[in-house]
Amino acid sequence: MSQLQKISISYFVALMIAASINYIPGLTDENGLAFGIFALDLYDDSLHVASALWALIAGLMSRNAARIFLVLFGAAYLGDGIFGFFTGYGFLDMGIFTNASLGMELSLGRSLANLPHLALGGFALVSGLFIERRA
Description:
Elements: H1 3-20, E1 33-34, E2 38-39, H2 42-61, H3 63-87, H4 95-98, H5 108-130
Antiparallel strand pairs: 1-2
Helix pairs in contact: 1-2, 1-3, 1-5, 2-3, 3-5
Protein name: DUF4383 domain-containing protein
Transmembrane segments: 7-26, 46-62, 69-92, 112-131
Keywords: Membrane, Transmembrane, Transmembrane helix
């Protein structure tokens, strides 16, 4: 199994954990905010599960499938995190289309809310583009 496939399968695990956050007692506050920072709904959970299954399938299929997953997933999630800083909403959950922009903000809360997508997306994109490159 290639390193890209292992990374892709690790994304399956990470995304399934993200999808389960709302269902683990103590991880959400009285307002339904995960870790007191951001809200996850059924749509978000479904998106995380679909992404996780894509990661698993790609990781089990081949090195090339894993690379494609990492590049496409990485670009989408990184972009979503960047949009979160500029508007307060992402595009993956259609938030930028259904809510008025909250404007650019570099607060701790907004940073922590967007950090998972920036980190997961950035690492996936860099991995897909630069790990195990063949001529």
